[in-house]
Design a protein that fits this description.
Shape: globular
Oligomer: single chain
Family: Belongs to the class-I pyridine nucleotide-disulfide oxidoreductase family.
Number of helices: 14
Protein name: NAD(P)H dehydrogenase (quinone)
Cofactor: FAD
Strand order of the largest sheet: 3-2-1-7-18
CATH superfamily of the largest domain: FAD/NAD(P)-binding domain
CATH class of the largest domain: Alpha Beta
Number of strands: 23
Pfam family, one: Pyr_redox_dim
EC number: 1.6.5.2
Number of domains: 3
CATH topology of the largest domain: FAD/NAD(P)-binding domain
Helix content: 25-40%
Strand content: 15-25%
Largest sheet: 5 strands, parallel
């Protein structure tokens, strides 16, 4: 820790950060490193929804579900458990989950991560105020409630990183018990008998997958032709096939019109008049930015019709000295993107070297089983002619390591620029695809040629060997 970050000088640049999520706390750390006098205002806890109610909790829950799925498939590898029966007999008992204990662990880990973020900020000399904040002009931040209500922060640079909240439908009001948003699922103490998930985007698919693996009967209601309409079509097809094979009910082209609770039963009414009855319902139909009532218009900060803050590629808003980062900007709703936006904002505002945000090299993952990880240009863009590229897709079923691990579903897909062979994107559908996508991300970021990837050594046997094999096949196609 440098002296200037621990004890800012009187002429240090004053930085105010509204929101303590990844965009906010990463910006604060960069600003402190560069010698600024930094104040963060956060109402719910450091780490924001990413740490407290979204990414960290959901992925912790998913980790438990993933273990359950692994145990469920262990018999194929020759593993038997006490009471597990034989290949020709039914098991005497099944592996079950204690949801109260799982969710207790989820909350404990989230709180611990939040505490770690606070400790890091305090170590770097960042001032932390608790409460909801709002702008009084572009250079004044006011704390309106909470422990530090009434505090005023004068700033030379202001960063808005206020995140987003679950979208709530007029006829599907959450009650926190049977009708739930993704922020409320961690209060459940018993596994739902029949969980209905409304919405088949990333959040809906992840929760549907998790609760199916934990042992609940799940119905996934999708208004589109397939699950994950925004993802690679081949990847979505694989996942939907896995869902159906595992016994999940997937209702395609079925828009939910209303969700009602009747005692211990939840009834979802579809637009065509059909109804689905279950014990619980998670409504996962998008998010809205937390920008209302912050004084943005009065401060000269422009927003879109959806309420998102308009920013350029270095996170500047329309108001001089005001920056924004994270889900409130409408850019990719990923913690990694929010963090980078926050860092870029401070590098730019405080005069350090900075490169504009490049979304082409952003990798993202859907944490289902199997996982779906993507980076760069998509096959849809290549097929439409928006990008000129060649495509190779290799099923994991032919990979030796996949056979050893009992992996049947998934593939590696690699895209390269026609003619030059430059890697421009890829898709991995596999267990731990979030880890396997990294070499593809590196190739996209550094503009590597497929031959660069093909000539690098890979371990045999390994799942990553399929990435090198795809690159070798693209060299043949490029000749």
């Amino acid at each position: 820790m440098s002296p200037t970050s621990a004890h800012p000088t009187s002429n240090a640049t004053r930085v105010a950060v509204l929101g303590g999520g990844p965009g906010g706390y990463e910006a604060a750390l960069v600003a402190a490193q560069l010698g600024a006098d930094v104040t963060v205002v956060e109402r719910d806890g450091l780490g924001g929804s990413t740490v407290l109610t979204d990414v960290v909790p959901s992925k912790t829950l998913i980790a438990t579900a993933e273990l359950m799925a692994t145990v469920d498939g262990a018999s194929e590898l020759g593993v038997r458990f006490p009471g597990g029966g034989t290949p020709t007999t039914e098991p005497e008992g099944a592996v079950t989950v204690d949801l109260a204990r799982v969710n207790g662990r989820v909350k404990t880990l989230a709180a611990a991560q939040s505490a770690d973020v606070r400790a890091r900020l305090e170590k770097e000399g960042v001032r932390i105020l608790s409460g909801s904040g709002a702008l009084e002009g572009p250079h004044t931040l006011v704390v309106r409630d909470g422990e530090d209500a009434g505090a005023r922060v004068e700033a030379d640079v202001t960063l808005l990183s206020v995140g987003a909240s679950p979208r709530v439908l007029p006829d599907a009001q959450p009650d926190g018990e049977r009708i739930l948003t993704w922020k409320q699922v961690y209060d459940l103490t018993e596994l739902p008998e029949h969980l209905i998930v409304v919405g088949s985007g990333v959040t809906g698919a992840e929760f549907a997958n998790a609760y199916d693996a934990l042992g609940a009967h799940v119905t996934l209601v999708s208004s589109r032709d397939r699950v994950l309409p925004g993802e690679d079509a081949d990847a979505a097809e694989v996942l939907e096939g896995v869902f159906r094979r595992r016994g999940m009910d997937v209702l395609s082209r079925s828009r939910a019109q209303k969700v009602e609770r009747h005692g211990d039963t939840v009834v979802v009414t579809l637009a065509d008049g059909r109804t689905v009855e279950g014990s619980h319902c998670i409504v996962a139909v998008g998010a809205i930015p937390n920008t209302a009532g912050l004084g943005l218009e009065e401060a000269g900060v422009w927003t879109t019709e959806s309420g998102h803050v308009e920013t350029d590629k270095v996170s500047r808003t329309s108001a001089r000295g005001v920056y924004a980062a994270g889900d409130c900007t409408g850019v990719f709703p990923l913690a990694s993107v929010a963090a980078m936006q926050g860092r870029i904002a401070m590098w730019h505002a405080l005069g350090d070297s900075v490169a504009p945000l490049r979304l082409r090299s952003v990798a993202s993952t859907v944490f289902t089983s199997p996982e779906i990880a993507t980076v760069g240009w998509t096959q849809a863009q290549i097929d439409s002619g928006e990008a000129q590229g060649e495509i190779v897709k290799l099923p994991l079923a032919t990979n030796a390591r996949a056979k050893m691990l009992g992996i049947h579903d998934g593939f590696v897909k690699l895209f390269c620029r026609t003619g030059s062979g430059t890697v421009i994107g890829g898709v991995v559908v596999a267990p731990r695809a979030s880890e396997l996508i990294f070499p593809v991300t590196l190739a996209v970021e550094k503009r590597l040629n497929v031959d660069d990837v093909a000539h690098a050594f890979t371990i045999y046997p390994s799942l990553s060997g399929s990435i090198a094999e795809a690159a070798r096949q693209l060299h043949v196609l490029g000749d």
